[in-house]
Amino acid sequence: MVTRLSHFFLRTLREDPADAEVTSHRLLVRAGYIRRAAPGIFTWLPLGLKVKARIEAVVREEMGNAGAYEVHFPALLPREPYEASGRWTSYGDGIFRLQDRRGADYLLAPTHEEMFTLLVRDLYSSYKDLPLSIYQIQDKYRDEARPRAGLLRGREFTMKDAYSFDYTDDGQDASYQAQRDAYERIFQRLGLEYVIVAADNGLMGGARSEEFLHPTPVGEDTFVRSAGGYAANVEAFTTVAPDAIPFDGLPTPVIFDSPDTPTIETLVAHSNAVLEGDYSAADTLKNVVLALTHPDGTRELVVVGIPGDREVDDKRVEVAFAPAAVEAATPEDFQRQPLLVKGYIGPWSEQGAILGEESATGIRFFLDPRVVDGTSWITGANIDQKHVHSLVAGRDFASDGFVEVANVRAGDPAPDGSGPVELARGMEIGHVFALGRFFAETLGLKVLDENGKLVTVTMGSYGIGITRILAIIAELNNDDKGLIWPASVAPFDVHVVATGRDAAAFDLAEKLSADLETAGFDVLLDDRPKVSPGVKFGDAELVGVPQIIIVGRGAADGQVELWDRRTGDREVVAATDAVAHLSAR
Amino acid sequence: MVTRLSHFFLRTLREDPADAEVTSHRLLVRAGYIRRAAPGIFTWLPLGLKVKARIEAVVREEMGNAGAYEVHFPALLPREPYEASGRWTSYGDGIFRLQDRRGADYLLAPTHEEMFTLLVRDLYSSYKDLPLSIYQIQDKYRDEARPRAGLLRGREFTMKDAYSFDYTDDGQDASYQAQRDAYERIFQRLGLEYVIVAADNGLMGGARSEEFLHPTPVGEDTFVRSAGGYAANVEAFTTVAPDAIPFDGLPTPVIFDSPDTPTIETLVAHSNAVLEGDYSAADTLKNVVLALTHPDGTRELVVVGIPGDREVDDKRVEVAFAPAAVEAATPEDFQRQPLLVKGYIGPWSEQGAILGEESATGIRFFLDPRVVDGTSWITGANIDQKHVHSLVAGRDFASDGFVEVANVRAGDPAPDGSGPVELARGMEIGHVFALGRFFAETLGLKVLDENGKLVTVTMGSYGIGITRILAIIAELNNDDKGLIWPASVAPFDVHVVATGRDAAAFDLAEKLSADLETAGFDVLLDDRPKVSPGVKFGDAELVGVPQIIIVGRGAADGQVELWDRRTGDREVVAATDAVAHLSAR
Question: How far apart are CA A209 and CA A432, in angstroms?
Answer without folding.
Answer: 6
